[in-house]
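This follows on from our talk about sequence and fold. Can you supply me with one protein entry, sequence and fold together? Could you add the entry underneath, on a fresh line?
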Amino acid sequence: MSTKDFRDQLERYLNGQLSDVELEDFLHALSAPDSRDQIFENMSNGFGKAQSGATSKKQAQSSFIRFSKMYLSRGKERTAKTTIKYLWSRITTKSFLAAVAVIIMILATVWLNRPRPVVPKAASMQQISMVAPANKTTITLQSGKTFVLDSNAIGILKNEGLAVNLDVSLGAITYRLQSTASTKQEQYHTLITGKGAQYLVVLAGGTKIWLSTNTVLQYPIGFTHQTSILQLNGEAYFEVAAAASIPFKVQTPKALITVIGTRFNLSAYGSEPSLKTTLLQGKIQVSDSNHLAILKAGQQLYIHPSGTWQVHAGADTAAAIAWKDSIFDFRNTELTSLMRQVEKWYDLQAVFTDGVDKHTFTGRISRKEGLTGLLQVLKESNLHFRKEGNKIVFFR
């Protein structure tokens, strides 16, 4: 974190202006070993306003007291009051700034390791069938009941007492807030799109999630707890409600995405060696046990099969979400990558002979043209192939 960002975040924290998600991120930064020098510098400079050591000490003490009050109001830990008072009394003139930096790091670490309420968890996605019928979407309820989202599902959902609207013709399911939701245990549903299918989920609170083909999404239907985590295996486009008061997190097979009111696309198929997320608006944080990346609008993170993380500025956001509008959008795309996308939507397997896979393509074609239309475009690009059952064999 740059010095300017650190100073801005610290000032916003002391003024109580950070959201819960931003607070968690900032306290992680405060507790890091290399944060002491930044805290020291900002305290000693009085956030750029102090002109003397005496003024620095006065402002540092004021900032420390404000930090402590914020900590106590957040943590509500009685023993912390005594600890803070004792530690401050032990600070000498010579060492007060260094001590302040250390104390703040300690308080941040204590806060991050505080006892947290237990959030009920849904059944593991491994316990649920990961396959839906072609061109169909299935739903699995908390009880384990699984069925296709067709006209018959309307009656089933109603009998389950769920506050949902199902639009079969549009392929959309919308959850409504229930006044009694806060008194019930959080329930999770799992939606699975089959090959060639896509679906829209509108969560209680207004967040919209478009699911691409062959995608599994497990989500809480009420967001009644302090933290709700969705699980995604596949690809989805998110429009997260900016007013959402609950931290919004998406767990994928390769990384955890933490969201602040935003629009982004996430391609995270467990069967593929890479992950790609593209941010259209807002801010997201992507992390695993060894990496942390914060994306701004217009940036794209690509996690390579080797495990290397790479952030690109000026991402082609239109191409990233073209699938949502039933369009294949190829930008200098190698044939192997192109056909991997096609395989997700159609019941086929691409086979390549030596050298053919290096061809690249640029262009857009509607999925409404079907597989026949797509193959015709490839044929007009001087590619040779033959059909063998559900296989398409490309050759020189």
Notes: The chain has a mean pLDDT of 76. Residues 3-112 form one domain. DSSP finds ten helices and 20 strands in the chain.
